[in-house]
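Q: How do we represent a protein-ligand complex in a form that can be generated token by token?
A: Start from the inputs.
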Amino acid sequence: MVDVPAAPFPFRLDPARVALVVIDMQRDFIESGGFGESLGNDVTRLQAIVPTVAALIALFRDKGWPILHTRESHLPDLSDCPPAKRLRGPEGKRIGDAGAMGRLLVRGEPGNAILDACAPRAGEMVIDKPGKGMFHATACDGLLRGRGISQLVFAGVTTEVCVQTSMREANDRGYECLLVTDATESYFPEFKAATISMIVAQGAIVGRATAFADLRESVR
Ligand code: C5J
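Then emit the structure tokens for the protein with dicarbonimidic diamide bound:
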């Protein structure tokens, strides 16, 4: 067991039960011409965390601990994209529309890929999810429980959307959750700050939060 300094209290990490979850480090959210930018967002904020996310992935690989990568994506016929999601954003720049890196948020398109710097390696879990949360309409829970995993360390984008939704889903399913605060980012700094506050409030009502350096030093 390793005690990782965290807010609001240390996270007792069990190397036999832990996995890293890297949420949606996709070109569609982080590069110019993707879905995130089509909604009017400044994607450069997200680019700044790529080295930290890559270092976190490298740490888990060094330790031989499991890693699960998610991609937010939809089937080419959009049958898994309800109108409540599809009909958002400016017309012509919505999910399924043509973008500079292929159809926005559509599985298999160049823009839907995970960045090279954070790309999954053979043997790592990869989940395509049609929702914001990693458990909605996916095989995530079975995959994790089948490996005896009950602790999840979270990184990725965006903090208040897919990361937070996934953490809340995980918390409800009984997983112990730890967010690495400098390995996650939002297009809106105030939303990131508020999300971290909400997660750790009320005695870690959703989970705990730590910095990458603190995690790295504790598991050395
Ligand atoms: C969004 C995500 N922001 N991965 N997706 O639409 O957070």
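The first strand starts at residue 2 and ends at 4. The radius of gyration is 17 Å.
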